[in-house]
Amino acid sequence: MFQNQRLNDMRNNIRRIDKMILLIVYALVMISTIFVYSATRQGGMVVKNMLWIGIGTVLVFLIAAVDYKNVKYFIRHIYGICVILLLLVRFAGKKTLGAQRWIALGPFQLQPSEFVKIAIVIIIAYWIVNKYKSGINNLNDIIGAVLPVTPLILLILIQPDLGTTLITVSAFLFMIFLYGANMKPIWIIGIVLMLSVYPIYKFVLSDYQRTRVETFLHPETDRKGSGWHVIQSKISVGAGGFLGKGVLQGSQSRLEFLPEAQTDFIFSVLSEELGFVGSSLVLLLYFALIFEIMRISRIVQDDFGRLILYGIAGVIFMHVIVNVGMTIGLVPVTGKPLLFMSYGGSSFLASFIMIGIVESIKIHNN
């Protein structure tokens, strides 16, 4: 009897899974596998990519089977684990390319910030639902809503990981905006910050910091130094034209002009080989994924689940904006991956965990 009930529950869960989300995700990861190979010409990386996809798939179905509302009972534990992981990064982490963001676990390098940003979304959702039932109505409420996770955000910022910090803060703003918060204080702060950009640049920044800003705005002034990545990326994107050179025909990655082609600049490889048409279709897949998550949020009865969906949609959206903007020189190079596309175990697993949470919310709502 009990076994039959479990089988029925499993059938109901599978029936309630959002198939469109899975279709989009697996379209993206299959495209990723093709272009990781195109960027590296290494079969080993393709095998690892497929391994992460396999592990991620298991995570999606395991997480989807569990009622997401149970996480409320473990919020303090999740917070504590996040603090421990970020402190481990701070004091015993591996430093690569000037940033200390990874923990070495044998052959695998764990990047905790990729998982912590998901935890931050969940913690914020829990905090808002319990403390701001009457709404977020002023600046004090906005500050209070983000206050519990501020230590986590600061620990990410000092790694330094400006990209994840930006994505996390943007996801928070995305959440409170869709929750119906009074955003007037945010607009005022935003305007003040915009008006203060030039005075800060002129009178606050040191010479080397001003040089970094100028190199970002004009990378050709340091072609062989800090401007190299962006210049080569823009060449890749531009070389693709309308229809692209064809899969495996990109010269920038094949001749190793494009650094970190399989991770940070996977979109540049894709743009060179598939052109404007192909890269636009990939971007449409991302926006279809975000649209589907937002569609689920409209039918969810629970504020906690709805806020988590807002946060996950915000994280995915900002990853796309930051990574794609980085490849065409609109955003500084921050090393943020294109989710489901860039090579990397932490990024892949964190992305699949988010999809598992989305599916759990879809399944376990009336």
From TrEMBL:
<feature type="transmembrane region" description="Helical">
    <location>
        <begin position="112"/>
        <end position="129"/>
    </location>
</feature>
<feature type="transmembrane region" description="Helical">
    <location>
        <begin position="274"/>
        <end position="295"/>
    </location>
</feature>
<feature type="transmembrane region" description="Helical">
    <location>
        <begin position="141"/>
        <end position="158"/>
    </location>
</feature>
<feature type="transmembrane region" description="Helical">
    <location>
        <begin position="73"/>
        <end position="92"/>
    </location>
</feature>
<dbReference type="GO" id="GO:0008360">
    <property type="term" value="P:regulation of cell shape"/>
</dbReference>
<feature type="transmembrane region" description="Helical">
    <location>
        <begin position="186"/>
        <end position="204"/>
    </location>
</feature>
<protein>
    <submittedName>
        <fullName>Rod shape-determining protein RodA</fullName>
    </submittedName>
</protein>
<dbReference type="GO" id="GO:0005886">
    <property type="term" value="C:plasma membrane"/>
</dbReference>
<dbReference type="InterPro" id="IPR001182">
    <property type="entry name" value="FtsW/RodA"/>
</dbReference>
<feature type="transmembrane region" description="Helical">
    <location>
        <begin position="46"/>
        <end position="66"/>
    </location>
</feature>
<dbReference type="GO" id="GO:0015648">
    <property type="term" value="F:lipid-linked peptidoglycan transporter activity"/>
</dbReference>
<keyword id="KW-0812">Transmembrane</keyword>
<keyword id="KW-0133">Cell shape</keyword>
<feature type="transmembrane region" description="Helical">
    <location>
        <begin position="307"/>
        <end position="331"/>
    </location>
</feature>
<dbReference type="GO" id="GO:0051301">
    <property type="term" value="P:cell division"/>
</dbReference>
<keyword id="KW-0472">Membrane</keyword>
<feature type="transmembrane region" description="Helical">
    <location>
        <begin position="337"/>
        <end position="358"/>
    </location>
</feature>
<keyword id="KW-1133">Transmembrane helix</keyword>
<feature type="transmembrane region" description="Helical">
    <location>
        <begin position="164"/>
        <end position="181"/>
    </location>
</feature>
<feature type="transmembrane region" description="Helical">
    <location>
        <begin position="21"/>
        <end position="40"/>
    </location>
</feature>
<dbReference type="Pfam" id="PF01098">
    <property type="entry name" value="FTSW_RODA_SPOVE"/>
</dbReference>
<dbReference type="GO" id="GO:0032153">
    <property type="term" value="C:cell division site"/>
</dbReference>
<dbReference type="InterPro" id="IPR011923">
    <property type="entry name" value="RodA/MrdB"/>
</dbReference>
